[in-house]
Write a sequence for this structure.
């Protein structure tokens, strides 16, 4: 409807009738059904004035009892419930409504970053919706139609309350049980192909992380779990494809291996990253726990400096459905770190530390042992 002028107390007409019916739908005004179409239904009376003010108060807009364009548009947006209409990204005129805000809130609750919950279906919301669709096996068309709405309702119902994403992740880990047998773990050597990553002291990251990944893979196989590498010694893949590979494989866990470098030769140590986004206050709780375990095991078994665990939104961390970490093991620009990493025995210790962290992730707390004490034979399923 074309809405130019403002309506207030004592006004009469079809526009007032429409305003009153919108307020009634929101439960703010009782409209006598029998009176519909009569003069009283079209009158901006005292009850209408009170209802408009209450609505304005709720919405955080100016409370003046006057229905101008701002209040009218807010009334119009407030009537939409998720599932009432098909939602999609219309660049020329963004769809706006409470249904869009509900969609955004649900996406955020499940860890899909659609930016702010602003009730406007913009590009970020479309992107997050596509990711959600991809994750639940729907066609990723970025449109919220009946099938997507159904998937959203079903998932949301299971995660209401508390920190839904964290709870769901933790439950999956508990359900998975303490043994590594049967678990599918993706070991991702970073870079590869023409992309060699960082280098220093005669070492190159792509080659070294592949060699380390092969050691981790061998140890995981010895525990009865299945380990897949994302690439061969010479292959390469971008981060999005690596995440898709892990998702398609239905992996339990993703471990991405990297090394770092810095212009200062003094910089050194080991850091582990998990998915987390401070802007929306969301992070992967299991990812964080696993990242901390990796740090504890590596830094407990070696003299690499502990640079701790940190949240990041890198594609591999954000787009993987399962807990994922990226370990930056040592600085090739640091003579001490590079010297250690060049030693195959040292890389064996690193591989053992990573596998011990994996085992510890699945162990119930009462069966946990001291950091650095788990040895591979004890981990055999
Ligand atoms: Zn790297």
């Amino acid at each position: 409807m074309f809405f130019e002028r403002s309506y207030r107390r004592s006004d009469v007409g079809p526009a007032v009738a429409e305003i009153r019916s919108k307020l009634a739908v929101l439960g703010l005004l009782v409209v006598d059904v029998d009176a519909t179409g009569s003069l009283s239904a079209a009158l901006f009376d005292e009850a209408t004035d009170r209802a408009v003010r209450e609505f304005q108060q709720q919405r955080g807009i100016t409370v003046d009892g006057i229905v101008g364009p701002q209040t009218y548009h807010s009334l119009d947006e407030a009537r939409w419930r998720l599932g009432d209409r098909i939602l999609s990204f219309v660049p020329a005129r963004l769809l706006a409504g409470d249904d869009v805000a509900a969609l955004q809130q649900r996406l955020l609750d499940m860890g899909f970053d659609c930016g702010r919950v602003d009730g406007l279906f913009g590009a970020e919301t479309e992107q997050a919706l596509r990711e959600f669709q991809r994750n639940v096996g729907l066609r990723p068309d970025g449109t919220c139609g009946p099938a997507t709405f159904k998937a959203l309702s079903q998932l949301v119902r299971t995660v209401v309350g508390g920190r839904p994403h964290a709870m769901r992740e933790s439950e999956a880990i508990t359900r998975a049980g303490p043994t590594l047998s049967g678990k599918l773990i993706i070991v991702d050597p970073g870079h590869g192909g023409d992309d060699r990553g960082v280098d220093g002291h005669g070492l190159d990251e792509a080659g070294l992380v592949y060699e380390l990944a092969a050691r981790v893979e061998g140890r995981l196989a010895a525990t009865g779990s299945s380990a897949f590498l994302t690439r061969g010694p010479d292959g390469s893949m971008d981060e999005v494809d690596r995440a898709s590979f892990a998702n398609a494989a239905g992996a339990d866990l993703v471990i991405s291996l990297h090394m770092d470098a810095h212009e200062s030769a003094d910089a050194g140590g080991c850091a582990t990253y998990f998915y987390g986004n401070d802007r929306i206050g969301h992070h992967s709780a299991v990812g964080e726990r696993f990242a901390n375990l990796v740090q504890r095991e590596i830094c407990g078994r070696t003299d690499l400096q502990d640079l701790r665990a940190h949240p990041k939104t890198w594609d591999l961390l954000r787009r993987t459905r399962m807990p994922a970490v990226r370990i930056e093991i040592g600085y090739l620009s640091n003579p001490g770190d590079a010297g250690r990493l060049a030693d195959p025995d040292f890389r064996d210790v690193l591989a053992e530390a990573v596998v011990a962290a994996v085992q510890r992730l699945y162990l119930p707390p009462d069966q946990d042992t001291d950091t650095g004490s788990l040895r591979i034979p004890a981990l055999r399923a």
Summary: Residues 159-164, 376-381 have pLDDT under 50 and may be disordered.
